[in-house]
Amino acid sequence: VEDRAGRSIKNISxxxxxxxxxxxxxxxxxxxxxxxxxxxxxxxxxPKGNDIxxxxxxxxxxxxxxxxxxxxxxxxxxxxxxxxxxxxYALYWVNPLKILKVKKMNSQTWEMEDxxxxxxxxxxxxxxxxxxxxxxxxxxxxxxxxxQKIKLLRKKIYLxxxxxxxxxxxxxxxxxxxxIHSFQSLWGSKTKxxxxxxxxxxxxxxxxxxxxxxLGYGVNDVESGFSKHQPExxxxxxxxxxxxxxxx
Length: 248
Prior knowledge:
Strand order of the largest sheet: 3-4-5-6-10-9-8-7
Order of helices and strands: EEHEEEEEEEEEEEEEEEEH
Distance between the termini: 30 Å
Oligomer: single chain
Structural class: mainly beta
Mean pLDDT: 90
Number of strands: 18
């Protein structure tokens, strides 16, 4: 964490894994909730069931809170946390859309409850479409990159897609483009850290502003980087009134 006052470093894996009772902590992602910043992470794949955590990192470092949701599956990885009108929510599922709300907080946990569930699936997204980045709010719309999972030779390929959550209307609008690092990256890497993975452009961070969208991403578990784009590069050409993107 760095600001004008200085820099602080906290190694989540080394500092917290014993305290939280897990041998590994995976998938850290930054979320802005109200005017504070948090990091979310999980305990990886555990046969008996894993845990999701959230921890404040700015303006001060807080203690990790375990996320509690009675209807969750044994294996959960990425929820997208956000705030609206002073309340805290989580995008739990993309297709069909499902949103949770913080019901109760204490020193160790955040308890979530059902807030909104869409009955029908979005025609433009498949059932294998999952949450990638956390949400970035710009002028009342929440943007994120989702992941499309495609199976090839019993292995998975991950592609990205820009999406916009209109929280007021409770609708998700997907962009027109599939996002990859390069055509070469689609063939995967020689080094295989995940035997179930053929290739992946995995998006972990997004920041939307008036003039650009910045992305953080990983490539096949061996490379990572940041990039800056105009919204049309990620979203695709849209007619007036046909997009959730507001250029301001």
